[in-house]
Design brief:
The complex is a heterodimer.
Chain A: H1 6-27, E1 41-46, H2 65-71, E2 76-78, E3 84-86, E4 89-94, E5 100-105, H3 119-126, E6 148-155, E7 158-163, H4 184-188, E8 203-205, E9 214-219, E10 233-238, H5 242-250, E11 256-259, H6 261-269, E12 273-286, H7 300-309, H8 312-319, E13 324-325, H9 340-344, H10 349-358, E14 365-371, H11 376-388, E15 391-397, H12 401-410, E16 413-419, H13 423-432, H14 444-455, H15 459-475, E17 479-491
Parallel strand pairs in A: 1-10, 1-11, 14-15
Antiparallel strand pairs in A: 2-3, 4-5, 5-7, 6-7, 8-9, 9-10, 11-17, 12-16, 12-17, 13-17
Chain B: H1 2-33, H2 38-43, H3 49-58, H4 65-77, H5 91-127, H6 129-144, H7 147-161, H8 177-211, H9 214-221, H10 226-256, H11 258-263, H12 269-278, H13 282-310, H14 312-316
Classes of the chains: A alpha+beta, B mainly alpha.
Chain lengths: 517, 317
């Protein structure tokens, strides 16, 4: 090039050098100093903003229990084995007819606002159940599946909760966000909870928190149980993108991360530990068991035909790689799980056709299901399988949340993701008496099995009852399970001990995380 | 001459103010046209109509629109952009923590893309031949590749495989300047790749035109050092479209940082927009729109003033 003499070349070299230097300066050194073993802090990468509605634990559902466990205490607590243990309530007892639950409260519990725990505060909390914004209380509000009719102060340390109808097993609810107690100032001025938590939990919120991005919690010296938590500081880092979350774990910005199934192999290939648990059943639910909206659904044989008609393995292979095809209504880790159902209801379109013929629907029938953006592709896969045995399932996309909810009364079949951490509560609150049974169908075997599970005195009796319950749910076609999604907790094995789940609960206890030895 | 310049600056400032005001009015009207009221949004589904009405009355939602806008404007001028309907936090305070993140990303990516783009563009124009073709090829590829894909590749190579940079997160400058730079490195490079290619093309074209100018030939004839000809005289002649390109890059990156913020989990304005729009948080949406407009208008002003300074013909007019 004519214009480029030796000086120009030197200039170009200097420029190139400067560019390279600037790039290298920007690069700096490695980042792993930040990830060197530090047993005082723990960073958990989560998939969503747990405090998107602020710091009122009653505005969220059980999926946020782990986050709020740091800031608030529960009336009763979830134990490492999944059972319910004492919390702010030292003990509890039911009346003989299971319509009153009495709690005896601990003393000496101090909230962020300086107030102390007493029965009046617990009553003030539970009396907020009429507030429609409190998702945690939706089941106990008036007309709810587990309606609480009154809460009364028996003494400064004793509270009585009265139910509209018998509620055996209600105590498990008090170990979820529903049982979290907000301090006196927070109850009096609920708007303040949008910005500032008012709890008595083992941690308090640190000012270095950046809303929607990272929530930093530091040990609360006023909490007597704080010693049971291994870390001085816990950071919840919100990383919505699943791959970015896995990357954060691999590169050391997180010590623990919620992983989606497709990123599990990647994490394992990088030497990270992954603890997995099932628990969420993606299942079709027969809303109409009486034939009111679609006569064919009144027949158990027709509902059973659905079990045989759907190719679950193919559905998982195509759309949910890494998850588990399911023929059980209850999850794999549940006491009620049985492998027998996998063979009894194995994919068999011919059997589905013959059942339809026996029920008088040899030429098939047609019905409509209401879908959403999340369920559309699954429903389309099922639609194809059903068409192969003569059932025409029309999919109508919901145009509003109201329409989606109204579908329980206007369509025969729905699709939901159900957590079975509390089978008795779910059966009474959702399946037998709740919103999935608007037509008020009954099934003696289901009622009996649920009652047996509720009354079971030991693990063996409970297992027997839950197996019966599970088998009947599938046999009756009240539930048409499709697949079970796994909850995956990836962890840095050099920093954190193997992550343990509390029974079948998909969210580990905050107290269960501990530094690697 | 001084009077003309003062008039020019005053005119431009008034136009900038009018633009911000117009956008603020439009944002206000769009927010009011959205379905639902602040009461319904803040109380959520299932709230009674009485409770919703009470919140709406408290927030002045039923007042006449001009009165509402004037109230909002008065507060905004005083630095108060209202409070979030979702969590009751101050919108101004929230944006004050997010603005530095997006500004760092956009400014960093603009500077890097300018340095790389000008360097590559000058090289392509001056050397020509195979160097020109290589630069052209690289630029074509860089423009074609989506930023999120580039980001994924960079994260895989420099965070996952070699742990040189953090894969996610943002460390504020005041906490640690070194960690701040490290946390910005990958997102800045990700955003800068496309911008550098754009500026390189712009620079190459402008430089080729500049090198044909008569005064450059005269300089060559007078044995002026080549580096001086290239980097002082020719580059200055070519600088107008390059500066305009750089300013446009900054504006584009400021609005387009949402991809990098999502990919690298950074708490910037893009993340705020995403959250506030999905939750129908009207004051937050309005706040972000106005702040972003102020930034864009300010950059345009600087561009105009810089153009005036760089071009002697414009300066004299």
């Amino acid at each position: 090039m004519k214009l480029l003499n030796s000086t120009a070349r030197r200039s170009a070299a200097v420029l190139a050098g400067a560019l390279l230097m600037s790039s290298l300066t920007a690069c700096g050194g490695g980042t792993q100093a930040a990830t060197a073993a530090n047993k005082d802090t723990l960073t958990i990468a989560v998939d969503s903003d747990s405090a998107s509605f602020g710091f009122d634990p009653l505005r969220v559902a059980d999926a946020q229990r782990q986050f709020f466990e740091g800031l608030y205490e529960n009336l009763l607590t979830l134990q490492p084995d999944g059972s319910v243990g004492p919390g702010l309530a030292k003990e509890f007892s039911y009346s003989a007819d299971n319509t009153v639950l009495t709690l005896n409260l601990k003393e000496g519990v101090i909230f962020t606002d300086g107030a102390a725990l007493d029965a009046a505060l617990v009553k003030a909390n539970l009396d907020r159940r009429s507030d429609p914004a409190l998702s945690a209380y939706s089941a106990i509000a008036q007309g709810g599946a587990q309606e609480v009719t009154s809460v009364s102060v028996v003494s400064p340390t004793q509270v009585a909760i009265r139910f509209a109808k018998p509620q055996p097993g209600f105590e498990k609810n008090l170990a979820s966000t529903m049982g979290m107690v907000v301090g006196k100032s927070g109850v009096a001025d609920t708007a303040s909870l949008a910005k500032t938590p008012d709890g008595s939990g083992p941690y308090t919120l640190d000012p270095s928190t950046v809303k929607g991005n990272k929530y930093v919690m530091v040990k609360n010296d006023k909490n007597a149980g704080a010693a049971g938590y291994a870390y001085k500081k816990i950071t919840f880092s919100v990383i919505q993108d699943p791959q970015a979350r896995a990357n954060a774990l691999v590169s050391g910005q997180a010590d623990v991360a919620m992983l989606t199934s497709p990123t599990v192999d990647f994490a394992k290939s990088k030497g990270l530990g992954v603890s997995q648990i099932g628990g969420t059943l993606h299942t079709m639910v027969s809303f109409d068991k009486t034939g009111k909206t679609a006569p064919a659904f009144a027949s158990e044989k027709v509902r059973q035909a659905f079990q045989y008609a759907i190719n679950r393995q193919s559905l998982v292979d195509a759309l949910h790689k890494g998850d588990i095809p399911s023929w059980n209504a209850l999850p794999k880790d549940s006491a009620g799980f049985t492998t027998e159902l996998e063979t009894t209801f194995a994919y068999n379109p011919e059997k589905a056709k013959s059942l339809l013929a026996e029920a008088g629907y040899g030429n098939g029938f047609e019905f409509t299901i209401v879908g959403s953006a999340e369920t559309q592709t699954d429903l389309q896969a099922v639609q194809k399988d059903l068409a192969a045995v003569g059932i025409t399932m029309n999919i109508k996309m919901a145009t509003s949340t109201d329409e989606a909810f109204a579908a329980v009364a206007t369509t025969p079949l729905g699709y939901a993701a159900l957590g079975w951490d509390n089978p008795v509560g779910l059966m009474y609150g959702v399946v037998l008496n709740g919103f999935t049974n608007v037509q008020k169908a009954s099934d003696e075997q289901l009622t009996a099995a649920t009652g047996e599970a509720a009354a079971a005195k030991d693990a063996a009796a409970k297992k027997t009852a839950l197996i019966k319950l599970n088998a009947r749910l599938v046999e009756s076609g009240w539930m048409i399970p499709l697949y079970e999604s796994l909850t995956n907790q990836g962890y840095n094995t050099k920093k954190v001990q193997q992550v343990q789940f509390a029974g079948s609960n998909a969210y580990p206890l905050l107290s269960s995380y501990a530094p690697a030895s | 001459m001084e009077v003309t310049m003062a008039l020019f600056i005053t005119k431009r400032l008034l136009m900038a103010l009018a633009t911000v005001l117009l956008v603020a009015v439009l944002a206000f009207l769009v927010v009011h046209a959205m379905p639902g009221s602040p009461g319904a949004v803040s109380l959520g589904a299932g709230a009674s109509q009485e409770a919703i009405d009470e919140v709406n009355v408290r927030l002045g939602w039923n007042d006449r629109l001009p009165a509402q806008f004037f109230r909002w404007l008065t507060d905004a001028v005083g630095g108060n952009l209202g409070t979030s309907l979702i969590d009751g936090r101050s919108v101004s305070a929230d944006l004050a923590t997010r603005l530095p993140v997006t500004a760092s990303l956009a400014a960093g990516a603009t500077v890097l893309s300018a340095v790389l783009g000008i360097g590559l563009g000058v090289t392509a124009a001056v050397r020509g031949g195979i160097a020109d073709r290589i630069v052209g090829g690289i630029c074509g590829l860089a423009v074609a590749l989506p930023a999120f894909w580039i980001g994924i590749i960079f994260v895989y190579l420099f965070a996952v495989q070699s742990s040189i940079f953090p894969a996610t997160g943002y460390i504020p400058f005041e906490v640690s300047p070194r960690d701040w730079a490290l946390s910005l490195a990958l997102p800045v490079i990700t955003l800068a790749v496309g911008g550098a290619a754009f500026i390189a093309r712009q620079t190459r074209a402008s430089m080729l035109e500049a090198l044909q100018q008569e005064h450059i030939r005269t300089l060559r004839a007078t044995a002026t050092p080549t580096w001086k000809i290239l980097y002082i005289h020719a580059l200055r002649f070519a600088s107008l479209p390059i500066v305009a390109g750089i300013a446009l890059q900054f504006i584009g990156l400021f609005g387009g940082s949402v991809i990098a913020e999502q990919l690298f989990a950074m708490p910037g304005l893009g993340q705020a927009v995403q959250t506030s729009v999905s939750t129908h948080d009207a004051p937050a949406v309005q706040g972000v729109v106005v702040i972003a407009t102020v930034v864009v208008v300010a950059v345009n002003l600087v561009l105009e003033f810089a153009t005036k300074f760089l071009d002697p013909k414009l300066r004299a007019s």
